[in-house]
């Protein structure tokens, strides 16, 4: 009998001896409920990245949220193509330059950063061999949660302060995209985002979950110094501008400011209104 058969036979005998019920040596005097036992089993062993991803809470997105909040990349198809094309360009650049952490920035509010971050998550989610983490670092307005139709129990500020773990906080889409969202307005975001503790927590998340890419949704560059802290931790930045809204000189200044802080991966011209052949594009990448 080989070792596997011996192990199966031993387990069978033990189960029969206990009347068919497997008992846990850690059982409390009052017993352990099935849910508690399942939760204990779900705690992944140290070093097991796959189990850590599998243990994350699922992200639930309703079809109403998808329709109302421009989550065009949620399902594959024509509407998702601009995001899939951007995904490929991002991957090429990231691979070439060995960049993993990408900040999504804009000069001013409303360029479409959070919507883009949410959609990139869904688009990258279809790359089954890739793991992606998307973190909302706009701690003043927490835009990404409402776009996904989610109000988490705690926010990324609590994760960065070490008050809650990323494992408990993150919401996972389709097993390979984890979103870290916000709940309430934070009083001192710039200090928190620039603190050494934030850098340590980010390193820990990266170590525990081994993402291929991490995207940081950020507050507008020219409105506060909040995003400067995020950019310290990023490898590069993707500058988002709203076509026909963000003036060229604002894009210029933002690009110059950005290049002093990190590598500029490219500019996404969002909200373009032109029709390129079969597909109606709403974004362009330079
Ligand atoms: N490609 C697009 N086409 C048309 N409207 C869009 C597009 N992307 C985003 N929007 C809309 O623009 C508005 C602002 O989007 P979003 O919140 O994503 O921007 P933001 O840059 O994150 O803003 P903030 O700086 O305030 O966080 C939303 O109403 C969103 O639905
Ligand atoms: Mg936003």
UniProtKB/TrEMBL annotation:
Span list, region Disordered: 1-39
| Matching Gene3D superfamilies | P-loop containing nucleotide triphosphate hydrolases
Q: Low complexity bias located where?
A: 30-39
List the InterPro entries.
Bact_polysacc_biosynth/exp, CobQ/CobB/MinD/ParA_Nub-bd_dom, P-loop_NTPase, Wzc-like_C
Which chain regions cross the lipid bilayer? none
| Keywords of the record | ATP-binding, Kinase, Nucleotide-binding, Transferase
Q: Name one GO molecular function term.
A: kinase activity
Record domain CobQ/CobB/MinD/ParA nucleotide binding: where: 102-275
The protein depicted here goes by the name CpsD/CapB family tyrosine-protein kinase
Q: Print the organism lineage.
A: Bacteria, Pseudomonadati, Pseudomonadota, Alphaproteobacteria, Rhodobacterales
